[in-house]
Amino acid sequence: MEHKDGECGMELKMRERYLKQLIAFQDMEVVKVVTGIRRCGKSSLLKLMMEHLKRQGIGDNQILAINFESMQFADMDSKGLYQYVTEHCPKEKRLYLFLDEVQKIKDWQNAVNSFRVDLDCDIYVTGSNAFLLSSELSTYLSGRYVEIKMLPLSFREFLEFHGYLVENYISPSGAAKKRVKNSAGETFELRELFEAYARFGGMPPLVETGLDQEKANMLLDGIYSAVVVRDILERGRRKEQRAITDALLLRKIILFLADNIGNNTSSASIGRTLVSEGLLDDGRKAKPAVQTISAYIDALLESYVFYEVKRFDIKGRDYLRTLGKYYIVDTGLRTYLLGDRGGDTGHILENIVYFELLRRGYDVAIGKIDEKEIDFIATKTDEKKYIQVTESMNAPETRARELAPLQAIRDNYEKLVIALDCDLMTDVDGIKIVKAMDFLLEG
Question: What is the C-alpha separation between 395 and 403, in angstroms, rounded?
Answer without folding.
Answer: 12
